[in-house]
Design brief:
By secondary structure, the protein is mainly beta. It has one helix at about 110-115; strands at about 5-10, 15-20, 35-40, 45-50, 55-60, 75-85, 90-100, 120-125. It has a single domain (about 5-120), classed as Macroglobulin (MG2) domain (Immunoglobulin-like, Sandwich). β3 and β4 (about 45-50) form a beta hairpin.
Length: about 130
């Protein structure tokens, strides 16, 4: 299992996690099934298990709901990816990122309208 810490994602923001799957020869490969879920670093479920259409490269949208906070403290989110290549051959990886608390969030509605379309993106490869 590999683990990576991503950059900060601002509270309430959309971010994208792009994942590529490789075989032992470092060639792109498409798993038979791909699922993911998101927890915080203490194991509390944030995003229920979700299936993704199998492809050699996928992009998971980390939604504003995934990145919302209920306190003024930052939180580490953990995205767990499970990819099956056969019934007995799977890869499990996790990716960690910091949800950065914003003072004064949620924003007044007028400011939210001005921020639409702003997002962050990261790219990760599973080997």
């Amino acid at each position: 299992m590999s683990s990576a810490i991503l950059d900060n994602v601002m509270e309430g923001s959309t971010a994208y996690l792009t994942i590529s799957f490789y075989d032992t020869n470092q060639s792109l490969i498409t798993p038979k099934t791909i699922d993911y879920y998101i927890t915080d670093d203490s194991g509390t479920l944030i995003h229920s298990p979700t299936s993704v259409t199998p492809a050699s490269t996928i992009t998971i949208t980390l939604t504003p709901s995934d990145n919302s906070l209920s306190s003024s403290s930052d939180r580490i989110n953990v995205v767990t990816i499970i990819a099956y290549y056969s019934p007995t051959n799977r890869v499990v990886s996790e990716y960690r990122y910091n949800v950065k608390s914003l003072v004064g969030f949620p924003f007044p509605p007028s400011l939210v309208t001005e921020l639409v379309g702003i997002s962050e993106s990261v790219s990760i490869s599973i080997h």
